[in-house]
Amino acid sequence: MLYYNLKNEKVTAGFTDAVENGISPDMGLFMPERIPQPDSGFFRRLPQMSLPEIAMEIGPLYTGDEIPMSVMRQICEEAFNFPVILRRLDDHRQVLELFHGPTAAFKDFGARFMAGCFRYFSSRDDRRRVVLVATSGDTGGAIASSFLGAEAIDIIILYPSGKVSSLQENQLTTLGGNITAIEVEGTFDNCQAMVKSALAARVAGAKVKLASANSINIARLIPQTFYYYFAIGHAGGGKVISVPSGNFGNITAAAIAWRSGLDISSLVAATNVNRTVPDYLRTGTFRPAPSVATIANAMDVGNPGNFDRLRRVFDNDYSRFSGAVSGYWFDDDTIREHIGEVYGRTGYILDPHGAVASLGLDAFLEHNRGSSGIFVATAHPAKFKGIVEPVIGREVEVPESIRGVLTGRKQSVKMKPSSAELAGYLYERYGRG
Ligand SMILES: *Cc1c(COP(=O)(O)O)cnc(C)c1O
C-alpha cells in the first residue's frame, strides 16, 4: 500500500516512511492511495470477532508486506489488551465505550498501535529513536503510557505549563524511565513550534533518529477504524454513528471504515461551540476559526487537522460529504444539562465529550424517526469529575487504570518557549553522534 501526500499527490511513501516521518512542516497529510476493501467473508464473520481479531485482518491491508504477520499479531494483541464495550441504553441508542484503556480515553487505541509500529521499526536498525510530541493534554499521556519501557526509544513530551489538568500532568510526568516531560513556560502553540523546528533542523546527533508522533500520524488513524467494525459487527448494520469531534481523526476513521464496505447508514459530526465543520455542512464554506475553550476541552479545535482527509474520503465533493455526514454543535450549558438528564433517566454517566456525541445522536434521531444509532464515548467520566459530579450529585469512581498516576512523583524539565533551548537540550543529551 502506498500513501500519498494530500498537498502534493505526486509525493508518495510506503507505510514505514509515512509513519516515521508523520508529516513535515510544508507537507500535507498522508492518505492511503485507496481504501482497502475487506472480502465479504470478513463482514460475515464480524459479529463473532474480537477487536484484536479484527485488527489482525484489517491492519495488514494497510501495512502490506512492511510488517510481517507474526509482528502484526503481536502489535495488535499488545495494543488492544483492554475491553471495548458496546452498551445498549434503550431501543434506539447504544454507546460505544472507548475509555477502558490505560489512560481512560480513546487516544490509547491510536497511540498503542503506533507505538507497536515504532518498536518494530527500531528493532530493525541500531539507531535510537527520539520521538518528540507536543501535547495540549490527552495525547501526551496516551503516547507516554504506550511507549513506556520501549527499548531504544526515548519519548520527549512538551506541554504548556499550567495549561493541562493535574491528572493529565501526572500522566505525563510521573512515569519516568524513557519518558521525559518538558514543561514549557508558554502555550501549546509554542510547544508545537518547538517540536517542528527541532524536526526541521534535525538537531541531535547522527546516532539518533528524530521522529514525531503527532495526532495526524497515519498509524494513529488506521487503528481507529477497527472499533467501528467491532461496533457494527456486534450491533448489526444500518446504524447511525455519532462521533464527538475536535481534530476530526476519529470520524475520518469511521468514514474510511464505511467506504470500505461497512454497513453504517449515516455519520454525525458532533462538536462543542467550535462549530467549523457543522457550519461547513450547513453553508458549504470551510471557515477555520480560533478555538474557544469549553468543558469538552479535548475537542476545542477551530481548524480541524483531519478535515482535508475527511473531505477526501468523500472525493472532495460537498454534496457527497453533506449527504453522508450531519453536523450538530452544543454549548456548555446544553452539555451539562444533558449529562444530568441522561443520568436521571437511565443512570448512565456521560463525560462531557460523550455527552456531545449523545446529543448529536438525539438530534439526528429527532430528524430521522425510526432510525437507531451508536454514539461514541471517548473519555471516562472520572477524568472530568469536577464537571460531572456537581451535575449528577454523586461521586464518580476512578478506574483502577488511572488511580496509579494520581500518587506518582512529578518530574519535569522546565524550559522557556524557545526552539534554541530545545535544540540545546537535545544536543546536550544526544551530542553530535
Ligand atoms: C481527542 C479527543 C476527542 C476528539 O477526537 P478527534 O479525533 O480529534 O476528533 C474527543 N474526545 C476525547 C476525550 C479526546 O481526547
Topology:
Blueprint: E1 3-5, E2 8-13, H1 15-21, E3 30-32, H2 40-45, H3 51-63, H4 69-79, E4 85-88, E5 93-97, H5 107-123, E6 128-134, H6 138-147, E7 153-160, H7 166-173, E8 179-184, H8 188-201, E9 208-212, H9 218-221, H10 223-235, E10 239-244, H11 249-259, E11 264-271, H12 276-283, H13 307-313, H14 318-324, E12 325-329, H15 332-346, H16 352-367, E13 373-377, H17 385-392, H18 400-403, E14 413-415, H19 419-430
Parallel strand pairs: 5-13, 6-7, 6-9, 7-8, 8-14, 10-11, 10-13, 11-12
Antiparallel strand pairs: 1-2, 1-3, 4-5
The chain binds pyridoxal-5'-phosphate (PLP).
Distance between the termini: 34 Å
Care to count the β-strands? 14
Lateral arrangement of strands in the main beta sheet = 4-5-13-10-11-12
Quick one: CATH class of one domain?
Answer: Alpha Beta
Bound molecules: pyridoxal-5'-phosphate
From the 3D coordinates, which CATH architecture of one domain would you assign?
A: 3-Layer(aba) Sandwich
Strand content: 15-25%
- Pick out the low-confidence regions: none
SS element count, helices: 19
> What is the fold-level CATH name, i.e. the topology of one domain?
Rossmann fold
Shape: globular
The overall pLDDT, averaged over residues, is: 92
Q: Which structural category fits the helices and strands?
A: alpha/beta
The biggest beta sheet is recorded as: 6 strands, mixed
- Amount of helix: 40-55%
What would you report as the Rg, rounded to the nearest angstrom?
Answer: 21 Å
